[in-house]
Design brief:
- By secondary structure, the protein is α/β, with parallel strands linked by helices.
- Strands 25-24-21-18-15-12-9-6-3-26 form a ten-stranded mixed sheet, covered by helices on one side. A seven-stranded parallel sheet has the order 4-7-10-13-16-19-22, with no helix packed on it.
- The chain is built from three helices and 27 strands.
- A hairpin with a 4-residue loop joins β24 and β25.
- It has a single domain, classed as 3 Solenoid (UDP N-Acetylglucosamine Acyltransferase, domain 1), CATH 2.160.10.10.
Protein backbone atom coordinates (compact mmCIF):
# COMPACT_ATOMS: atom_id res chain seq x y z
CA UNK A 1 0.00 0.00 0.00
CA UNK A 2 1.34 3.43 -0.94
CA UNK A 3 2.85 5.17 2.05
CA UNK A 4 2.38 2.14 4.30
CA UNK A 5 4.73 0.79 6.95
CA UNK A 6 5.07 -2.79 8.23
CA UNK A 7 5.05 -3.35 12.02
CA UNK A 8 4.68 -6.89 13.48
CA UNK A 9 2.82 -8.21 10.46
CA UNK A 10 0.58 -5.15 10.26
CA UNK A 11 0.66 -2.53 7.50
CA UNK A 12 -0.09 0.93 8.83
CA UNK A 13 -1.41 2.97 5.92
CA UNK A 14 -1.40 6.74 5.84
CA UNK A 15 -4.73 8.15 4.77
CA UNK A 16 -5.38 11.47 3.12
CA UNK A 17 -5.74 10.67 -0.56
CA UNK A 18 -3.62 12.11 -3.35
CA UNK A 19 -2.70 15.75 -2.80
CA UNK A 20 -1.25 17.86 -5.58
CA UNK A 21 0.35 21.30 -5.52
CA UNK A 22 -1.03 23.28 -8.47
CA UNK A 23 -0.18 26.83 -9.52
CA UNK A 24 1.74 27.25 -6.27
CA UNK A 25 -1.18 26.22 -4.04
CA UNK A 26 -1.65 23.01 -2.10
CA UNK A 27 -4.64 21.52 -0.27
CA UNK A 28 -5.18 22.45 3.38
CA UNK A 29 -7.12 19.94 5.43
CA UNK A 30 -8.45 20.22 8.96
CA UNK A 31 -7.05 17.44 11.17
CA UNK A 32 -10.55 16.20 12.04
CA UNK A 33 -11.47 15.68 8.37
CA UNK A 34 -11.32 12.29 6.65
CA UNK A 35 -9.98 12.04 3.10
CA UNK A 36 -10.28 8.57 1.57
CA UNK A 37 -7.10 7.00 0.16
CA UNK A 38 -8.31 7.22 -3.47
CA UNK A 39 -9.66 10.78 -3.30
CA UNK A 40 -7.69 13.48 -5.15
CA UNK A 41 -7.28 17.10 -4.02
CA UNK A 42 -5.62 19.56 -6.40
CA UNK A 43 -4.44 23.10 -5.71
CA UNK A 44 -6.12 25.69 -3.52
CA UNK A 45 -8.53 23.39 -1.67
CA UNK A 46 -9.60 24.16 1.90
CA UNK A 47 -11.31 21.31 3.77
CA UNK A 48 -13.04 22.22 7.02
CA UNK A 49 -13.62 20.35 10.29
CA UNK A 50 -15.27 16.92 10.26
CA UNK A 51 -15.56 16.86 6.47
CA UNK A 52 -15.73 13.45 4.78
CA UNK A 53 -14.33 13.08 1.26
CA UNK A 54 -14.94 9.54 0.07
CA UNK A 55 -13.36 7.16 -2.42
CA UNK A 56 -12.68 8.38 -5.93
CA UNK A 57 -13.83 11.96 -5.32
CA UNK A 58 -11.89 14.69 -7.17
CA UNK A 59 -11.59 18.26 -5.84
CA UNK A 60 -9.71 20.33 -8.44
CA UNK A 61 -9.32 24.05 -7.77
CA UNK A 62 -7.63 24.85 -11.13
CA UNK A 63 -6.90 28.60 -11.15
CA UNK A 64 -9.49 29.38 -8.47
CA UNK A 65 -10.31 27.75 -5.11
CA UNK A 66 -12.51 25.16 -3.43
CA UNK A 67 -13.81 25.65 0.10
CA UNK A 68 -15.64 22.91 2.01
CA UNK A 69 -17.53 23.87 5.17
CA UNK A 70 -17.81 21.97 8.42
CA UNK A 71 -19.31 18.46 8.43
CA UNK A 72 -19.88 18.41 4.69
CA UNK A 73 -19.94 15.02 2.96
CA UNK A 74 -18.60 14.41 -0.55
CA UNK A 75 -19.42 10.89 -1.67
CA UNK A 76 -17.78 8.44 -4.03
CA UNK A 77 -16.64 9.65 -7.47
CA UNK A 78 -18.05 13.15 -7.11
CA UNK A 79 -16.22 15.85 -9.10
CA UNK A 80 -15.82 19.41 -7.80
CA UNK A 81 -13.96 21.74 -10.17
CA UNK A 82 -13.38 25.47 -9.88
CA UNK A 83 -12.10 27.67 -12.70
CA UNK A 84 -11.09 31.17 -13.72
CA UNK A 85 -10.80 30.74 -17.49
CA UNK A 86 -13.97 32.67 -18.35
CA UNK A 87 -12.45 35.91 -17.06
CA UNK A 88 -14.19 35.73 -13.68
CA UNK A 89 -13.34 33.77 -10.56
CA UNK A 90 -15.60 30.69 -10.31
CA UNK A 91 -14.83 28.91 -7.03
CA UNK A 92 -16.67 25.93 -5.65
CA UNK A 93 -17.89 26.87 -2.18
CA UNK A 94 -19.83 24.44 0.01
CA UNK A 95 -21.39 25.57 3.28
CA UNK A 96 -21.61 23.57 6.47
CA UNK A 97 -23.46 20.23 6.44
CA UNK A 98 -23.79 20.03 2.66
CA UNK A 99 -24.26 16.52 1.27
CA UNK A 100 -22.88 15.75 -2.21
CA UNK A 101 -23.96 12.35 -3.46
CA UNK A 102 -22.04 9.78 -5.51
CA UNK A 103 -21.15 10.76 -9.09
CA UNK A 104 -22.34 14.34 -8.59
CA UNK A 105 -20.65 17.13 -10.58
CA UNK A 106 -20.21 20.66 -9.21
CA UNK A 107 -18.49 23.23 -11.42
CA UNK A 108 -17.73 26.74 -10.21
CA UNK A 109 -20.84 27.03 -8.05
CA UNK A 110 -21.85 28.08 -4.54
CA UNK A 111 -23.90 25.73 -2.35
CA UNK A 112 -25.18 27.11 0.93
CA UNK A 113 -25.49 25.23 4.23
CA UNK A 114 -27.55 22.08 4.64
CA UNK A 115 -28.19 21.64 0.92
CA UNK A 116 -28.58 18.09 -0.37
CA UNK A 117 -27.34 16.98 -3.79
CA UNK A 118 -28.30 13.40 -4.56
CA UNK A 119 -26.62 10.82 -6.78
CA UNK A 120 -25.57 12.13 -10.21
CA UNK A 121 -26.76 15.68 -9.52
CA UNK A 122 -25.10 18.36 -11.66
CA UNK A 123 -24.62 22.05 -10.78
CA UNK A 124 -22.91 24.29 -13.33
CA UNK A 125 -20.90 27.50 -13.29
CA UNK A 126 -21.98 30.48 -11.15
CA UNK A 127 -25.17 28.74 -10.00
CA UNK A 128 -26.14 29.41 -6.38
CA UNK A 129 -28.10 27.07 -4.13
CA UNK A 130 -29.76 28.50 -1.04
CA UNK A 131 -29.73 26.87 2.40
CA UNK A 132 -31.60 23.59 2.47
CA UNK A 133 -31.99 23.35 -1.30
CA UNK A 134 -32.36 19.84 -2.72
CA UNK A 135 -31.29 18.50 -6.11
CA UNK A 136 -32.75 15.01 -6.39
CA UNK A 137 -31.24 12.06 -8.27
CA UNK A 138 -30.05 13.10 -11.72
CA UNK A 139 -31.22 16.69 -11.28
CA UNK A 140 -29.47 19.37 -13.36
CA UNK A 141 -28.96 22.96 -12.22
CA UNK A 142 -27.77 25.01 -15.19
CA UNK A 143 -25.25 27.85 -15.16
CA UNK A 144 -26.30 31.20 -13.63
CA UNK A 145 -29.32 29.58 -11.97
CA UNK A 146 -30.34 30.59 -8.44
CA UNK A 147 -32.24 28.15 -6.22
CA UNK A 148 -34.10 29.80 -3.32
CA UNK A 149 -33.83 28.45 0.21
CA UNK A 150 -35.18 24.90 0.56
CA UNK A 151 -36.07 24.73 -3.15
CA UNK A 152 -36.62 21.20 -4.51
CA UNK A 153 -35.42 20.08 -7.94
CA UNK A 154 -37.22 16.80 -8.77
CA UNK A 155 -35.36 13.76 -10.14
CA UNK A 156 -34.01 14.06 -13.70
CA UNK A 157 -35.31 17.59 -14.28
CA UNK A 158 -33.61 20.80 -15.40
CA UNK A 159 -33.55 23.86 -13.15
CA UNK A 160 -32.63 27.01 -15.06
CA UNK A 161 -32.72 30.77 -14.65
CA UNK A 162 -33.24 33.44 -12.04
CA UNK A 163 -36.04 33.26 -11.11
CA UNK A 164 -35.71 29.53 -11.53
CA UNK A 165 -37.85 27.39 -13.79
CA UNK A 166 -38.01 23.59 -13.56
CA UNK A 167 -38.39 21.79 -16.89
CA UNK A 168 -39.04 18.12 -17.50
CA UNK A 169 -36.94 16.09 -19.95
CA UNK A 170 -38.24 16.55 -23.47
CA UNK A 171 -40.01 19.82 -22.74
CA UNK A 172 -40.25 22.08 -25.78
CA UNK A 173 -38.97 24.92 -23.59
CA UNK A 174 -35.60 23.30 -22.92
CA UNK A 175 -33.65 24.46 -26.02
CA UNK A 176 -34.64 28.11 -25.63
CA UNK A 177 -34.00 28.03 -21.89
CA UNK A 178 -30.49 26.65 -22.39
CA UNK A 179 -29.72 29.11 -25.20
CA UNK A 180 -30.63 32.01 -22.91
CA UNK A 181 -28.03 30.86 -20.37
CA UNK A 182 -25.15 31.58 -22.76
CA UNK A 183 -23.26 28.62 -21.36
CA UNK A 184 -20.17 28.84 -23.56
CA UNK A 185 -19.61 32.41 -22.43
CA UNK A 186 -20.19 31.65 -18.76
CA UNK A 187 -18.05 28.51 -18.62
CA UNK A 188 -15.33 29.19 -21.17
CA UNK A 189 -15.47 32.89 -22.06
CA UNK A 190 -16.37 31.91 -25.60
CA UNK A 191 -18.69 34.18 -27.58
CA UNK A 192 -20.14 32.23 -30.50
CA UNK A 193 -23.46 31.94 -32.25
CA UNK A 194 -25.84 29.38 -30.79
CA UNK A 195 -26.21 27.74 -34.21
CA UNK A 196 -22.45 27.47 -34.82
CA UNK A 197 -21.87 24.50 -32.58
CA UNK A 198 -18.68 23.27 -34.21
CA UNK A 199 -16.92 26.62 -33.72
CA UNK A 200 -18.30 27.02 -30.19
CA UNK A 201 -17.13 23.66 -28.97
CA UNK A 202 -13.82 23.84 -30.82
CA UNK A 203 -12.98 27.05 -28.99
CA UNK A 204 -14.33 25.70 -25.70
CA UNK A 205 -12.07 22.65 -25.98
CA UNK A 206 -9.08 24.90 -26.71
CA UNK A 207 -9.79 26.89 -23.54
CA UNK A 208 -9.79 23.71 -21.46
CA UNK A 209 -6.65 22.41 -23.20
CA UNK A 210 -4.81 25.55 -22.15
CA UNK A 211 -6.23 25.47 -18.63
CA UNK A 212 -5.45 21.81 -18.04
CA UNK A 213 -2.00 22.26 -19.56
CA UNK A 214 -1.00 24.08 -16.37
CA UNK A 215 -0.97 20.68 -14.63
CA UNK A 216 2.36 19.94 -16.32
CA UNK A 217 3.98 21.86 -13.47
CA UNK A 218 2.11 20.07 -10.67
CA UNK A 219 3.89 18.50 -7.69
CA UNK A 220 2.65 15.35 -5.98
CA UNK A 221 2.85 16.00 -2.24
CA UNK A 222 4.26 13.53 0.26
CA UNK A 223 2.10 13.67 3.39
CA UNK A 224 2.73 10.30 4.99
CA UNK A 225 4.49 11.81 7.99
CA UNK A 226 1.63 14.12 8.89
CA UNK A 227 -1.46 11.93 8.60
CA UNK A 228 -3.06 9.55 11.11
CA UNK A 229 -2.62 5.82 10.51
CA UNK A 230 -4.98 2.95 10.05
CA UNK A 231 -3.89 -0.67 10.39
CA UNK A 232 -4.83 -3.73 8.38
CA UNK A 233 -3.55 -7.29 8.54
CA UNK A 234 -1.79 -8.83 5.55
Amino acid sequence: MRGGRRQNGIVTARLGGTRIRHRGHEPRIHPSAYIAPTATLVGNVLVGPHVRVMYGAVLDAEGSRIEIGEAAVICENAVLRASAVAGTDQPVVLGDHVFVGPHATLLGCVVDRCAYLATAATVLQTARLGPGAVVAVGGFVHARTVLPDEFFVPPHTLAVGDPVRVLAPGSAEVPDAIREVGFAGVAFGVDAEWTDRVSRYERSAEVRVEEFGAHVGDDLLDHQDTEPTVARKL
